[in-house]
Automatic annotation (TrEMBL):
GO molecular function list: amino-acid racemase activity
Descriptive protein name: Aspartate/glutamate racemase family protein
UniProt keyword annotation of Methyltransferase present: no
Sequence intervals crossing the membrane: none
Pfam family, one: Asp_Glu_race
UniProt keyword list: Isomerase
InterPro entries membership: Asp/Glu/hydantoin_racemase (IPR015942), Asp/Glu_race (IPR001920), Asp/Glu_racemase_AS_2 (IPR033134), Asp_race (IPR004380)
Keyword Protein transport: no
Family: Belongs to the aspartate/glutamate racemases family.
Superkingdom of source: Bacteria
């Protein structure tokens, strides 16, 4: 089994899900007491969020690059970045790193295509919804992503940072997210990408009317496949 290097903490809430899900998948796949070989570097999200808010993406990329290199030195065979938003600096993060990165958008696009779908709604941080670093990869894979209205994007982003990243889950926010998802479906979305690693705390297949692709779960499945590949 290859060693998965996880660069996480952005936020800690989602990194907990990554660890739990990878362990569950390994146990289901291999049985017995099996668990995945992991190296986890969990950062202080307050420092990263401050760089995001200030638009200091160059500095953020350098910080993640140092951590990616550390994971490589520690023995990781490949990397996963346990956050959608910080894939904005994926190229900078991988500068000088010789092991591969399993990109979360590529894993998600592959899952949607495999299901025979092509017009996913995207709920994520404002950075991920409004900038091209993520949607361009979906388009390059042949998908037609649909993003929420401006008001719905603002609400989606606020709930992520003010609540979900702090492990706060409320019925009101769940209802708000269900409404946003419903409006995306009404505009023609045939599936829904939970494009922030915390969004799955509020939405799942039980409250969305189209197939749901939780990027955290999809990413974990792809990572375990890569770890077990010969």
């Amino acid at each position: 089994m290859k060693t998965i290097g996880i660069l996480g903490g952005m936020s800690a809430a989602s990194t907990q899900i990554y660890y739990r899900q990878l362990c569950t998948l390994a146990r289901e796949r291999l049985g017995g007491l099996h668990s995945p070989d992991l190296l986890i570097r969990s950062l202080d999200f307050a420092a990263i969020e401050a760089l995001q808010a200030a638009g200091e993406w160059g500095r953020a990329g350098k910080r993640l690059n140092a951590e990616a290199l550390a994971l490589e030195r520690g023995g990781a065979d490949f990397l996963i970045l346990a956050t959608n938003t910080m894939h904005k600096v994926a190229d900078a993060m991988m500068h000088g790193v010789s092991i591969p990165l399993l990109h979360i958008a590529d894993a998600t696009a592959h899952g949607i295509q495999r299901a025979g779908l092509g017009r996913p709604g995207l709920m994520a941080t404002a950075f991920t919804m409004e900038q091209s670093f993520y949607t361009d990869r979906l388009v390059a894979a042949g998908l037609e992503p649909i993003i929420p209205s401006a008001d719905d994007r603002t609400l989606t982003h606020r709930i992520i940072y003010d609540e979900l990243c702090r492990d706060i889950v409320t019925d009101d926010s769940r209802a708000a997210y269900v409404g946003i998802a419903s409006r995306l479906v009404a505009r023609g979305a045939d599936s829904l990408i939970l494009g922030c690693t915390e969004v799955g705390m509020l939405l799942d297949q039980g409250n969305v009317s189209v197939p749901v692709f939780d990027t955290t779960l999809v990413h974990c499945e792809a990572a375990l496949e890569m770890a077990l590949a010969s």
